[in-house]
């Protein structure tokens, strides 16, 4: 092959590579620009606007710039830490219990037990029910006058008189947590069951041949395969439950005596009951920074994307 022909072929190949690169670049731009516009419109701009509102005393009517005074006022109030504690207790308890219950049921149904398909189908119903229906049902179950749980506890002699679960200081938060876990445990259940069914059965067969016990098989085979899914559930469900508003508001309105008032409930109260949008947006900003900090620490400590991969 002559030198001139080689040079011509090299030039053609270079031109083709450049065209391919240009096409790839155009495709990336075509996919990235709409995503960027969507991101700015529905996420970045509202957050920046809300954080900007938090720097004013009355951002809606007669705005007066106060800097970080709203933040210092909130952080300096003793009740803020009570509301933060309520939020942490609610998020940790509901996430942890939902994970444990979902994992237990997933392990049972994965054993191909009789009625497993029916139970798996039934597990989706609590998640599909509207929150209002769930709260109505649990208020009926826990009602001190006609509730079946109170009646059963009295008949068994476990309590002397019915308990107003949603209206009593020591029982209000547990009652809300129970209702939340009943509704959201299926989230963990389906994720973990799908991950369990993806595990190669030959691994368990080899473990049995080598004399491994059930616990050893779970520790060395099942849990390592579930670890990534568990970490994702803890992050997603934890943030979701920390920000949960409807199930608490519909059941207790944050009472009694603010025993179930979480940070989202307090934001609502500041904005719509006390009409103080400056403090409300500042509190929402504090929640945003708290969760962002937790997410950064979480991803640095656990790297769940590697676990899933």
Describe the structure.
This protein has about 300 residues and is an all-alpha fold. The chain has 14 helices and no strands. Helix 1 crosses helix 13, helix 2 packs across helix 13 and helix 8 packs across helix 10. It is flat, with a radius of gyration of 27 Å. The chain starts with a helix and ends with a helix.
Question: What would the keywords be for this entry?
Answer:
14 helices, mainly alpha, 0% strand, 309 residues
Layout of secondary structure:
Blueprint: H1 3-53, H2 69-76, H3 78-109, H4 116-122, H5 124-128, H6 131-141, H7 148-155, H8 169-197, H9 201-209, H10 214-242, H11 246-252, H12 263-273, H13 277-302, H14 304-308
Concise summary:
Helices cover 77% and strands 0% of the residues. The protein has helices spanning 3-53, 69-76, 78-109, 116-122, 124-128, 131-141, 148-155, 169-197, 201-209, 214-242, 246-252, 263-273, 277-302, 304-308.
**Ranges with pLDDT <50 over ≥5 residues?**
none
Note the run of SSEs as H and E: HHHHHHHHHHHHHH
The fraction of residues assigned to DSSP E strands is: under 5%
Q: How many β-strand runs?
A: 0
